Amino acid sequence: MAALVLAAAGRARILQLASKANPTWYPVSSFSSSSVPTVKLFIDGKFVESRSDKWIDIHNPATNEVIGRVPQSTKAEMDAAVAACKRSFPTWADTSILSRQQIFLRYQQLIKENLKEIARLITLEQGKTLADAEGDVFRGLQVVEHACSVTSLMLGETMPSITKDMDLYSYRLPLGVCAGIAPFNFPAMIPLWMFPMAMVCGNTFLMKPSERVPGATMLLAKLLQDSGAPDGTLNIIHGQHEAVNFICDHPDIKAISFVGSNQAGEYIFERGSRHGKRVQANMGAKNHGVIMPDANKENTLNQLVGAAFGAAGQRCMALSTAILVGEAKKWLPELVERAKKLRVNAGDQPGADLGPLITPQAKERVCNLIDSGTKEGASILLDGRKIKVKGYENGNFVGPTIISNVKPNMTCYKEEIFGPVLVVLETETLDEAIKIVNDNPYGNGTAIFTTNGATARKYSHLVDVGQVGVNVPIPVPLPMFSFTGSRSSFRGDTNFYGKQQVTHIIKQEQHGILSSSNGLHHSPN
Ligand code: NAD
């Protein structure tokens, strides 16, 4: 009952803020000279205006209008945020696990109640369709629900009688201050991969959302506060490289969760690890779908279209590369026909299947990669470069694009495109397809489409890729399993969510019986 009352109170407060700060949920600055809404910092339980003189514009990708500004936090602000994390840690770590669990039970309820509002913010800042934005929140919500099972996840281990009169116990204890650095493509899901699991285990958290899409994180922070998280347990700073370097170097930060590009991830992994931090880094991808001629054609083509072009291809698990094996190559014209039917529009427009790319620079990069395909001998079967969206002529739109006759040495194959572009290769055998997948440096996700169980088993056992789908195009694990990744797609030892994300140190105790004999006890070592 108490939880329901709190949840209702939380919602009322959010709605009030939303109407004040229309059209975006940013607590608007009182001393900014500009009328553009500014994103605040969240330090020690307060949404505070930054005193920075360096600000970054936030654009609506469907129009390129400036819709807000985010600060590059000053050193003093970042220090204050870590200090708040550090100050609140002992009390939070000592708070009973049941009380922490209750806060996250209330949190999952508040996220559900505000799901549409969070999704609206995502569409505004990131551009994806409202349906995709709701999916973004929903997948993050599932991690919060998983975090609520902390009472099982944090169980330690015991071993009685490791010697005649001695037992051994291990505990999982929180690490301290942890930090998260998020990308632009999942503004709700990825922050929710990070702070809920760390915090429910008793850690405090410093979050740096992507500077392009901070709105969802701000609203999620407000909802966590409304759920009862004590002041200082979650803090939010904004910025780019300086904020990232600050996180990598700060001696009070014990662990870093990063999701984003390889360029940033390799750097953060190296710099954070050098300072003794535990770093997990989920990075780029080139996900292959292998289509066997015995696959169910209807389902496979539908799934390919959704997985390659959905969310405008700006998903780390987008199925961006198809390998057509043997006779499956005859399906290509039909694949093109289906892709042509997708509706490209602003994400908040009814019926939109895919929205714009995040920035004009992203659009230019994607178009250049398509150009490279033509120059290097591939064929463009469907070309989305010149698309015009009525009423949104300034948006960063690229329509579904299919490039065939692609070879593994071509630039459009080697680079992660991160746009609505499917590159298509052909092989005669499954073995050749497996070799292509394993020779590619990335190992994030892959899928095989087949009706043959032996083929599916062979593929899933031989490919060196983190997530494998059998007739499932985007095999993102549910949060009771970990999101993995191999080779260039991941750095670190512990994966996101599942049992591995229990952010802890293991403390070991050995209990012996005081002996009246000679006082020596016998160690098993
Ligand atoms: P990005 O690397 O540009 O940005 C991610 C974060 O790092 C941001 O907070 C940004 O401020 C910071 N950053 C950016 N460049 C930096 C640099 N040179 N040094 C230090 N910090 C830097 O990534 P993005 O464009 O926001 O996201 C897209 C990328 O994320 C794609 O490569 C995609 O595959 C990857 N991604 C991976 C997963 C996964 O689970 N493997 C999930 C989502 C996205």
From TrEMBL:
One annotated GO biological process: thymine catabolic process
Keywords, ordered alphabetically: NAD, Oxidoreductase
Signal peptide range in chain numbering: none
EC supergroup of this enzyme: oxidoreductase
Reactions the enzyme catalyzes: 2-methyl-3-oxopropanoate + NAD(+) + CoA + H2O = propanoyl-CoA + hydrogencarbonate + NADH + H(+); (R)-2-methyl-3-oxopropanoate + NAD(+) + CoA + H2O = propanoyl-CoA + hydrogencarbonate + NADH + H(+); 3-oxopropanoate + NAD(+) + CoA + H2O = hydrogencarbonate + acetyl-CoA + NADH + H(+); (S)-2-methyl-3-oxopropanoate + NAD(+) + CoA + H2O = propanoyl-CoA + hydrogencarbonate + NADH + H(+)
Entry EC no(s): 1.2.1.27
GO molecular function, one term: methylmalonate-semialdehyde dehydrogenase (acylating, NAD) activity
GO CC terms of this entry: mitochondrion
Domain Aldehyde dehydrogenase: 47-504
A UniProt-annotated Pfam family: Aldedh
InterPro entries: Ald_DH/histidinol_DH, Ald_DH_C, Ald_DH_CS_CYS, Ald_DH_N, Aldehyde_DH_dom, MeMal-semiAld_DH
Function: Malonate and methylmalonate semialdehyde dehydrogenase involved in the catabolism of valine, thymine, and compounds catabolized by way of beta-alanine, including uracil and cytidine.
Family: Belongs to the aldehyde dehydrogenase family.
Name of the protein in question: Methylmalonate-semialdehyde/malonate-semialdehyde dehydrogenase [acylating], mitochondrial
